[in-house]
Amino acid sequence: MLTHAPTGAPSDWITRWAHLVRPAGRVLDLACGSGRHARWFAQRGHAVVGVDRDAEAVGALPPPISGRVEDLERGPWPLADEAPFDAIVVANYLHRPLWASLAGALAPGGILLYETFASGNETVGKPSRPDFLLNPGELLEVARTHGLRVIGYEDGVLEVPRTAFIQRLCAVREVERTAGKGGPPAYRLPA
Question: Which stretches of 24-176 are DSSP H helices?
């Protein structure tokens, strides 16, 4: 059984893998809502950009978080003017046309931390529309398609705070290696 953080607290999945984010690195909290992850990363010294379409929620983000009001589902990728991110965090949000933009916005060594609802959730509540539910193995396929190395993945049922079907991914955009120099990077797995 997967565990889930209480409402308002950062996701256990996100905090579990946060040690992989470069110290003081740039973090994007996409569809940040009230900013539970943006706040958590900012408190740890990261430069954080929180993006959501809810102007009131973005307006309530405290400094030093940089908030941007953007409708992620209309028009071109609104963060094309931003430098690459050392981490992109997405929780409880799914808009498939963003996959390539998310992968492209990761800096070399950047971490994608993704957690959202999966197929099967329609049997226990909302969201229930297929547009908002990941297909079996979909996050793994996204990582493969966009050249990301999977560090951690889960697909299962949460019981707390309510029953939900969830997929979770931690993947990295690997740093290019020149021929004959070093092996693959080692990623410390959390205890």
Answer: 36-43, 55-59, 99-104, 138-145
C-alpha 38/C-alpha 32 separation (Å) is: 7
The low-confidence residues of the chain, meaning pLDDT below 70, are 1-7, 177-191
In order of 107, 108, 128, 134, 160, the CA distances from 11 in angstroms are 23, 24, 21, 18, 12
Element (H, E) at 14: helix 12-17
Estimate to the nearest angstrom the gap between the alpha carbon of 153 and the chain centroid. 12
- Beta strand 106-117 with 164-172 is antiparallel
- The string of pLDDT tens digits covering residues 137-163 is 999 999 999 999 999 999 999 887 788
pLDDT at 11: 94
Going along the chain from its start, the domains and CATH numbers come out as 12-172 (3.40.50.150)
Residue positions counted in the chain: 191
